[in-house]
Fold this protein.
Amino acid sequence: MNNVNTIIVSLFLLSLCITTTTRAQDADIYPDMTGKTILITGSTDGLGREVATRLGMLGAHILIHGRNAERGAEVVAEIKSNGGSAQFYQADFGSLDNVRDMAEAIKRDYRRLDVLVNNAGLGSGFAGGERRESEDGYEMLFQVNYLAHYLLTELLLPTLKTSAPSRIINIASRSQIAIDFDDFNQENKHTGRKAYRISKLANVMHTFYHAELLQGTGVTFNTLHPASRMGTTMVLQTPGPVRSTIDEGADVVMYVVTSPDLVGRSGIYFEQFEEGRANDQAYDEVARERLDKMTREILGLSVRE
Ligand SMILES: NC(=O)c1ccc[n+]([C@@H]2O[C@H](COP(=O)([O-])OP(=O)(O)OC[C@H]3O[C@@H](n4cnc5c(N)ncnc54)[C@H](OP(=O)(O)O)[C@@H]3O)[C@@H](O)[C@H]2O)c1
């Protein structure tokens, strides 16, 4: 083989090493998840759907969630056809009462929950970027992406604690912008992009604040940016190119959900597989505490002194 051919073959072999994993390879890479119960919000589509299917093939019982019951049934059927088990919960996170009902139903149906993946989300292209309010009166992305997940996590925390060691994972994004507490409901100068970035920083701040509170409970709480501009519904609602595959993002979620390396490790913001640096406001203790207090007041939860 001449030098040029050797280089071509080497590059091909290297590309095989760095390519994303497929569902068929998962069993060789990730631990067996038999006996684990895992809730993935927003698993009727996109990233959540892929992760749900892959975790189902590793033996976990998957709680599928979304608004669309038809797609929910499809995902459950796909997991079952691969030999796994799953159940669908329908809830619109634009309604906090829907979140409360879903948490009640899950607590009624299951005594343990090993992993909660807070993944459901609306993107910056929702309603063409126009400001919409939830039925509870909050800016829609702030509610669906952040408030609803804060409430769900809080309501399921007793079950996660009795199932410890357990994991909570907030799917955030590297797209973040500081929250203006005087206008958290974004009545002024609203844009879809700003609303998305605020909600994603709130996911990170929620993680950092609660990872500290949960120290010593056996419940870890981490957050991550999966990949940039995967070709999912929310990305296709906005102009601009697709830059990553859903598989690339799913590999990151699979790692943070399953990796034995992360046992006992909490309060980390992952940018894909590396520890990343979030927006500065996430490291401001006063801002984190302020967001938490404000959130608990909004949600009618007891406020810590
Ligand atoms: N795509 C990317 O490049 C990218 C990059 C960074 C971070 N992320 C994050 O990754 C997560 C998943 O995004 P994706 O790209 O996979 O989005 P997607 O394909 O648009 O899927 C969004 C999921 O959220 C659910 N959902 C949306 N609105 C809801 C509501 N009001 N109530 C309940 N469920 C709702 C949808 O279910 P129904 O349609 O059944 O309601 C769907 O299952 C999001 O948190 C996103 O911020 C994505």
Notes: The first strand starts at residue 37 and ends at 40. Residues 42-48, 66-68, 71, 92-94, 119-122, 144, 171, 173, 225-230, 232-235 surround NAP (CB under 6 Å). The radius of gyration is 19 Å. Residues 25-299 form a domain with the Rossmann fold fold (CATH 3.40.50.720).
